[in-house]
Amino acid sequence: MKLLPLFLRRPIEAVYVRRLATTLAGLPRPRHVGIMLDGNRRWARQEGLADVREGYRAGGAKVTDFLGWCTAAGIERVTLFMLSDDNLGRPAEQLGPLIEVIEDTVRDITAEGRPWEVQVIGSLDMLPGAGAGVLKEAAAATAGRRGLKVDVAVGYGGRREIVDAVKSAFQEHIAAGGDPAELAERFDIEDVSRHLYSPSADRTDFIIRTSGEQRLSGFLLWQSAYAEMHWVDCYWPAFRHVDFLRALRSYASRERRFGK
User: Fold this and answer.
1) What is the pLDDT of residues 218-237, one digit of tens each?
2) Mind telling me the catalytic residues?
């Protein structure tokens, strides 16, 4: 299909998308999808763009499309991995433009009229400048919206999240007058789950990563214990509706045993 002219390829692809969506009706689908938006800079270089920031911008624009696809597919929650805590060590000339695009993207998906309830998760205090405040303010405006729940992971690391959850559990217990030794004695899985950045998203069903890389890179380490994985060869800005539906088809074909 890539050999066809664009004006022919688009209508043919649209027909295929509708047919594929129809075949998925009634099949199992994930409740919570985590997606790693990988390959923005590589896409820009592949497209011959002199400024790799154009890759960030194209990737940010893709997010709104993706959330629309998830809404249409009946997905309940999405976690978007937009910036890891390791990424915060990048040079300022790389990190600054990326954070600007993230801010613009969050403003877009939280704008008035958007149906999605958004929260930003991660070590936001590590963001430079006023980034944390901008993201929190935009997300706060969506409280109570009844659409798809969206977690935007920024400055996020799965190991750091688990450490923070354990700390939070003990801080809560001590603040209530409890004995730390007593909590340590009975500490269990649920004590971590309740103190994750997004406690209601303590289990992820399906993780998608674009760009062809096949690793989690610290994404949702606790939540993904029994998640199904799907690797996509294309870079995030080139990710299409048909790629998403094919991913859902792959998910529907799997037998989930949860270790049994």
Assistant:
1) 999 999 999 999 999 999 99
2) 38, 87
